[in-house]
Amino acid sequence: NRGRNQFGYFMQSMQRAAQKKMRTLNDLRVALALDQLRVLYQPIVELASGRIRKAEALLRWEHPQRGPVSPAEFIPLAEESGLIISIGDWVFQQAFHQAMRWRGSIDPDFQISVNMSPAQFRRHSPGAGHACHPPHVRAHPVLGRYVGTEIVVEITEGMLMESTHNIREQLLSFRESGIQMSIDDFGTGYSSLSYLKKFHIDYLKIDQSFVLKMVAGSDDLALCEAIVVMGHKLGIKVIAEGVETQEQRDLLTAAGCDFGQGYLFSRPLTAPQFDLLLRGHNYC
Ligand code: C2E
Ligand code: CA
Ligand code: CA
Ligand code: CA
């Protein structure tokens, strides 16, 4: 509206942004092929005992020129392009092998949770006109191989609610094969509470936005307490994310929250760093 020159400028900057996206995506493809991606593991601590019982696998990309690129930037690109499918498979493999190692050396019940994007389910959506498909199609080609409880799949509330019939079938087939499920960022989306029961959800992860501002007497604490009570009534364990202070830890422990994850305990670590932490003292 303000004249041709400004319009032109706008178009140019849009084009530059699109070009940058394309470059980043190309670099990401190369990074996956050249094994330049890394998985870090952030400890998840059992609040009652202080023991490290689980970890969350978090993807890292060290760009050869740009340095570390945040997953908040490259995961959406990978989702848009479908590259998340290959990346996601790779993360699962890493996490699975790491979980097996820690089960052997540290704790036979150790679990690693892995973030899963909707696109990782969508590849299995049947095309139009295939309303019925045989049961074997339901088995996920990568997850289907992992039939233990080593891995917990983290999905968001939105995925539970907006999921198509095909995704719902896949989630239920995960359950049948023993894979556990966790609802990530709980409280920020919307979910029908009946779905938590229907899908036999194992864990709720209270979003860090509730935990970060939590002080005694706050609404955020009241929400956390309510989530814990509700979860426990449904047989679901509750994990609080973003625990940064001792006060938050104490309030969550008093509220009966089962697990905590956050900088108070540890930042995400490389597997060797995690090994040291586990061997030195399994307690936080
Ligand atoms: P998320 O799943 O909600 O992961 C938690 C994020 O909070 C992580 O950020 C973690 O490093 C950060 N965090 C942990 N403790 C604290 C704390 O005490 N305080 C604060 N302020 N932050 C804390 P990160 O690693 O940057 O990951 C961002 C998001 O990228 C993740 O959010 C997840 O949605 C996505 N992501 C990461 N790895 C993967 C992956 O392998 N696959 C998929 N699909 N998504 C991933
Ligand atoms: Ca997560
Ligand atoms: Ca989260
Ligand atoms: Ca998140």
UniProtKB/TrEMBL annotation:
Q: Name one GO biological process term.
A: regulation of DNA-templated transcription
Q: Looking at the record's lineage, which domain of life comes first? A: Bacteria
Q: Per the database record, which ranges form the EAL domain? A: 21-282
A GO MF annotation of the entry reads:
catalytic activity
What name goes with this protein?
Answer: Diguanylate cyclase
The scientific name of the source species is: Massilia violaceinigra
First and last residues shown, out of full length: 583 to 866 of 867
